[in-house]
Amino acid sequence: MSAAAWRVGVIGHPVAHSISPRFQQAGFDAAGLDARYEAWDLEPSQLESHIDSLREQGALGANVTIPYKEAALRHMDGLHETARFVGAINTIVNNDGHLQGYNTDVTGFQRSLSEAGVNPAGANAVLWGAGGAARAVAWALIWRQAAALTIINRTAVRAGRLRHDLASASASAALQSFGADDDRVADALRGADLVVQCTSVGLRGSETAADLPFEPKLLGTATFVVDLIANPLETPLVQAVNASGRRAIGGLPMLVYQGAAAFELWTEQEAPVAVMMDAAHDAMAGTVT
Fold it and tell me: Is 69 a catalytic residue?
């Protein structure tokens, strides 16, 4: 990399809540790189022009968060295979004016499972939710050889759409989907080795901050739960599952690991993950409820 200052940041709307600037900047500083990581809160009308500005010399690229992961994909010059399969990007890399889109949520989720000692190969997995995050998790599990994948969503139609898309792309896992009020939900949760909570239920500051997406008592005795929500560190679901004697983790590890993967794409250097994780925890500790 050049000795000149580099420009990089996170694109979203809103992004004031994002802790990515905290842990990404810590990573750049620890690596001794002259880069400034910023939060770019863009109106929809600003998205295309801002992405186009990332082609300029001195721009590394960007992270992309809600609600632009799908819209930003349409402005890329090329896509990594993960982004093509998922249908959304969360990382943009500027290669001499050529913008390449990636989805590092996939590798971030896979690494968070590995760090927790969970191997999804052969697992019966349940996704609670069918949005963009669920789509990335679905492919992460399929590529790690999960045997079966059940998609449960508030609306059965959206769950069915994700199942159809996975099947159309020749997903190897056995697939099924249904609505959250379906009689089969209890059996699906009871028989799951792994449940991944992909909705906003339990998110700090939301109307559902104190809610549970489903009752932990429905889970099998050995079911492992991942709640993708990173704020708070322990959602009501994570707390309830751990209190029941089962194991659960929140979404902060995935958030940092996907960010570390993006860091490595921008810099072609190994990310200082420990430094980034510490900075993320410090940022969370300072979050106002």
Answer: yes
